[in-house]
């Protein structure tokens, strides 16, 4: 039996709103993505994951879903989706959707019905409505904080006009959490899965897969705001949801070989492994490596933990170094003088959206090296749009254009995620840089800086040393050099350089990454350099670079 495609696939994440705009309204759409499928095929990816493109009021740009079986009109319609999926499949590319099961939009028909029905109703039982504390119910039911900042509860006005119950939203107030202890919720999502699987979707990325269930008693969290609320996340009951979904996927047979990949922010790699048991999720992102700064020992330790906790169980490791929620890799790895956020900004923000002085050139060199490390590892890899261009984070967006709810909910202490969501530059022509088809009737929904021109696809496509060229070549050579079925590596010690060099062998290929500034003389027994993120000089690998070499042993 052949190996499942998803165990070694390279998937390209498409933030639809910012990828390509076919109708010139300043907002990316499905037709724009469809028009650029040739670009993605030439890049060499195996499929695309679409961020949510369902109808939504866009309070969190699609992660507030109003209808799970439709398409947001700004992006097209179901016919546009079907055409996109058909063209992608014709090119041999898989199509993954983004499923948001922890919460919906406050515009969802169920939530509107809950507001109208009042306390104690069957409609409210689909969500987490509770009476407030205090003499008049004026205080939230518990002390939980939203992941976006501020309280995780909002109070409603009842149909009779009086202040009423509170509802839980672990994110924005426009994203009420479902009560997964109500069987109607599970039944609804069963139907959603089947709707999209029947349309030919090859799998789902599951948003906040460690959420869904909360502690049954909604107890106060005794820890601090910067600690993970263990009453709100990673509840044991959530695992049965994924067993149920795995059974639904199996109904479509081995020829479809459908997958799920979970967004699981677990406390440890061992906790993550629990989601990857044989009857649960086939995949879950390994975020531990993404959270690491540019450091040889931290990278080596994180990768070793992934193999020890996940790879040893037989599950495929799913690697990624960027997505729509974190600062771009060039900026993260280019931080030379980090500055911590205000102590009231909790969670892992200092790890995934670090701030401080940035050396962009250094960051780009490191990001190129990190790409080669990632693609040499066994397992699947997810690439975020624009990373193949070496785009830095747009850190200086004007305050009045920021749209991420984290910006306002954190009292503007956390700049949020807009900087990695700025529409892509396809050409050097301002305004718009080719993002919108002509004639454009509106500016891109987020402004693009002037320096985007140097990163445009048109500037890089014919440049053999560009970051785009490196991605294309690395993806091509990955297929040639590595056996997908070989899911092991062996570490190689580099005498005298253990603190700033990481090296391992997979099959007959050696991957080496120089984390420090000092060049590395290539040992003679390593053989010829097959591909390097920066050209070797005088037989040495440059600092902050990576290479694949043919082992001579």
Label this structure with key terms.
about 550 residues; alpha/beta; eight-stranded parallel barrel; five-stranded antiparallel sheet
Detailed description of the structure:
The chain is an alpha/beta fold. The chain has 16 helices and 20 strands. The protein has helices spanning 16-19, 30-35, 37-43, 78-90, 109-117, 183-198, 238-250, 269-273, 287-290, 296-309, 329-333, 349-352, 360-376, 405-409, 457-460, 467-481; strands spanning 10-14, 47-50, 94-99, 129-130, 153-157, 163-168, 203-206, 259-262, 283-286, 318-320, 335-339, 355-358, 380-384, 490-491, 501-506, 509-514, 520-521, 529-532, 540-541, 545-550. An 8-stranded parallel beta barrel has the order 1-2-3-7-8-9-10-13. Strand 7, helix 7 and strand 8 form a beta-alpha-beta unit. Helix 6 runs parallel beside helix 7 (238-250). The radius of gyration is 23 Å and the shape is globular. The two termini are 31 Å apart. The mean pLDDT is 96.
SSE diagram, text form:
Elements: E1 10-14, H1 16-19, H2 30-35, H3 37-43, E2 47-50, H4 78-90, E3 94-99, H5 109-117, E4 129-130, E5 153-157, E6 163-168, H6 183-198, E7 203-206, H7 238-250, E8 259-262, H8 269-273, E9 283-286, H9 287-290, H10 296-309, E10 318-320, H11 329-333, E11 335-339, H12 349-352, E12 355-358, H13 360-376, E13 380-384, H14 405-409, H15 457-460, H16 467-481, E14 490-491, E15 501-506, E16 509-514, E17 520-521, E18 529-532, E19 540-541, E20 545-550
Helix pairs in contact: 6-7, 13-16
């Amino acid at each position: 039996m052949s190996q499942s495609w998803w165990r070694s696939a390279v998937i390209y994440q498409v933030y639809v709103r910012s990828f390509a705009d076919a109708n010139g309204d300043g907002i990316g759409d499905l037709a724009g993505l469809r028009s650029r499928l040739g670009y993605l095929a030439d890049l060499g990816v195996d499929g695309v994951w679409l961020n949510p493109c369902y109808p939504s009021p866009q309070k969190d740009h699609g992660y507030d879903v109003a209808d799970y079986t439709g398409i947001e009109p700004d992006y097209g319609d179901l016919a546009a989706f079907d055409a996109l999926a058909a063209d992608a499949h014709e090119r041999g590319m898989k199509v993954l959707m983004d499923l948001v099961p922890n919460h919906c939009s406050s515009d969802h028909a169920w939530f509107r019905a809950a507001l109208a029905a009042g306390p104690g109703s069957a409609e409210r039982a689909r969500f987490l409505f509770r009476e407030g504390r205090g003499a008049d119910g004026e205080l939230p039911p518990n002390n939980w904080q939203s992941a976006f900042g501020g309280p995780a509860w909002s109070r409603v006005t009842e149909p009779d006009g009086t202040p009423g119950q509170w509802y839980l939203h672990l994110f924005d107030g426009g994203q009420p959490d479902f009560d997964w202890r109500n069987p109607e919720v599970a039944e609804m999502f069963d139907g959603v899965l089947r709707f999209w699987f029947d349309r030919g979707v090859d799998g789902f990325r599951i948003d906040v897969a460690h959420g869904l269930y909360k502690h049954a008693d909604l107890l106060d969290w005794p820890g601090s705001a910067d600690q993970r609320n263990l009453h709100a996340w990673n509840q044991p009951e959530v695992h049965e949801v994924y067993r149920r979904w795995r059974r639904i996927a199996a109904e479509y047979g081995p020829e479809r070989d459908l997958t799920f990949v979970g967004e699981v922010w677990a406390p440890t790699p061992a906790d993550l492994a629990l989601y990857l048991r044989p009857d649960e999720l086939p995949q879950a992102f390994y975020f531990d490596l993404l959270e690491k700064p540019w450091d040889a020992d931290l990278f080596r330790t994180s990768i070793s933990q992934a193999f020890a906790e996940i790879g040893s169980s037989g599950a495929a490791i799913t690697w990624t170094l960027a997505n729509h929620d974190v600062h771009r890799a060039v900026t993260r790895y280019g931080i030379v003088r980090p500055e911590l956020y205000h102590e009231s900004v909790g969670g892992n923000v200092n790890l995934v959206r670090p701030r401080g002085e940035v050396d962009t050139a250094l960051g780009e060199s490191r990001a190129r090296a990190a790409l080669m490390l990632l693609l040499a590892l066994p397992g699947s890899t997810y690439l975020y749009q624009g990373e193949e261009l070496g785009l830095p984070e747009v850190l200086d967006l004007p305050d009045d254009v920021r749209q991420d709810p984290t910006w306002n909910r954190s009292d503007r202490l956390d700049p949020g995620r807009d900087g990695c969501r700025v529409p892509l530059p396809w050409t050097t022509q301002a305004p718009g840089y080719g993002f919108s088809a002509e004639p454009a009737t509106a500016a891109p929904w987020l402004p693009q800086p002037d320096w985007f021109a140097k990163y445009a696809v048109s500037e890089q496509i014919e440049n053999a040393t560009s970051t785009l060229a490196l991605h294309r070549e690395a993806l091509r050579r990955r297929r040639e050099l590595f056996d997908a079925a070989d899911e092991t590596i062996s570490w190689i010690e580099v005498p005298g350089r253990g603190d700033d060099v990481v090296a391992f062998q997979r099959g007959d290929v050696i991957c080496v990454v120089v984390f420090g500034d000092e060049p590395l003389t290539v040992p003679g027994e390593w053989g010829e350099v097959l591909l390097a993120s920066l050209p070797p000089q005088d037989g040495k690998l440059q600092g902050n670079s990576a290479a694949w070499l043919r082992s001579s042993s």
